[in-house]
UniProtKB/TrEMBL annotation:
SMART domains: PLDc. It is found in: Secreted. Could be a virulence factor. InterPro entries: PLD-like_dom (IPR025202), PLipase_D/transphosphatidylase (IPR001736). PROSITE patterns: PLD. This is Phospholipase D. Keywords: Secreted. One of its GO terms (molecular function) is phosphatidyltransferase activity. GO terms for cellular component: extracellular region.
Length: 386
């Protein structure tokens, strides 16, 4: 297996007054997250899709308790579907002042919305984002079969711009009967369109969300795309744009060969035929389950919580950072090459060999389910194994 670990010097860059540091390895990502919480002096804002009652969950719990004992203001928002702890797990922290919120939309249109964002914002100056949740399997090693994921620490003025967004999101969650259109306004209000570092958010929009619109625009003008997509089932319009890059330049995509949800793998494979015809190079990551979310387009990087599928494009609350910097793009391309070394090339011949008529039917059904149902539902169905 290729060694994806890099030195701190190799993994960090200064961009527009902000220090950006990659955390590709699970154990050191947990260590960095704990250090971030333990170093807080004023405030901690945390937002996660999944929080588990396991070793990592207890370590973060203890770090939050130490912060509360120091007089730090701490708040935590967890998605209702991903809230997997005993009923009284957080009671001691709440008694010490923790503001705990569950994103638990009521039935109707709101019920479909998932808070898929992940962040820990400290003192309005440091924030860690990425695809990882608070669970042991996101902080383990490839050898242990943990999720392969990616974290990014942002230190500088860009971090502060997340604080008002987070606070308005908390206020919306706490408002009884809050309207979706208000959430839509929050997503658009805090999405940025200027600067080297731009926060772009996803949410329940009628068209493409701000982050998806930014990515779509960058796809239209780019000649070189490298993408790591754990869940890959985008719109056909997005697929056409990737295909055009494959014809005029270079397009490479790494998807998952292993997952806890077979339907997502089958759905991704449903898109391969048209992409391969257009010269797009496709690879499947072999060592373990893939959970990374990364798009590099020429000199632009999109990194954060969002998958490259229809739920993330149109419905889920997502958080992405768009970085326009050649050196940072080169750093992420180096990371991409490390992941590529552990991935299987999917040639047209290989795709044809493993895509019989029954397999194609399963893939088509999986694509429909993944693009129209919640991940939790398709995971419980365990559909898509072929």
């Amino acid at each position: 297996m290729a060694d994806a670990a890099q030195s701190d010097k190799d993994r960090g860059l200064l961009v527009d007054g902000n220090r950006l540091t990659l955390h590709p390895e699970g154990p050191e990502r947990l260590e960095a997250l704990l250090g971030l919480i333990d170093g807080a002096e004023r405030s901690i804002r945390m937002l996660y899709y999944i929080y588990r009652d396991d070793k990592s969950g207890h370590l973060i719990h203890e770090a939050m308790e130490r912060a509360l004992d120091r007089g730090i203001t701490v708040s935590l928002l967890i998605d209702g579907f991903g809230y997997d702890v005993p009923q009284h797990f957080f009671d001691p922290l709440v008694a010490k002042g923790l503001m705990l919120c569950r994103f638990h939309p009521s039935f109707g249109r709101r019920y479909l919305i998932r808070n898929h964002q992940k962040l820990t914002l400290v003192d309005d100056i440091k924030v860690m984002i990425g695809g990882f949740n608070i669970e042991d399997s996101y902080f383990g090693t490839v050898e242990e079969g943990a999720w392969r994921d990616l974290g990014l620490l942002v230190e500088g003025p860009a971090a502060a711009r997340l604080a008002p967004y987070y606070d308005e999101l908390i206020a919306w969650v706490l408002t009884k009967g809050a309207r979706i259109r208000v959430l839509n306004r929050i997503v658009h209000r805090y999405s940025e369109s200027h600067g080297k570092l731009q926060w772009t958010f996803g949410g329940p929009t009628r068209g493409l969300s701000p982050w998806a619109r930014a990515t779509s625009r960058d796809l239209l003008s780019s000649c070189d795309v490298e993408m790591i997509a754990a869940y890959f089932a985008p719109t056909w319009a997005m697929l056409r744009r990737i295909g055009r890059i494959g014809r005029r330049g270079r397009a490479r995509i790494v998807t998952a060969a292993k997952s806890d949800n077979h339907a997502t793998i089958a759905a991704a494979r449903y898109t391969y035929k048209n992409l391969l015809r257009r010269g797009v190079e496709i690879f499947e990551y072999q060592p373990t389950k893939l959970h990374s979310k990364l798009v590099v387009l020429d000199d632009i990087v999109h990194i954060g919580s969002s998958n490259f599928d229809i739920r993330s494009l149109y419905l889920n609350l997502e958080m992405m950072l768009r970085v326009d910097d050649p050196a940072f793009a080169m750093l992420l391309r180096t990371y991409f090459e490390h992941e590529l070394a552990d991935s299987l090339p999917i040639t047209p011949a290989l795709h044809r060999k493993r895509s019989g008529w029954w397999t194609r039917i399963i893939q088509a059904i999986s694509f429909f389910l993944v693009t129209s149902a919640d991940y939790t539902i398709t995971r419980r169905l365990n559909f898509g194994r072929v």
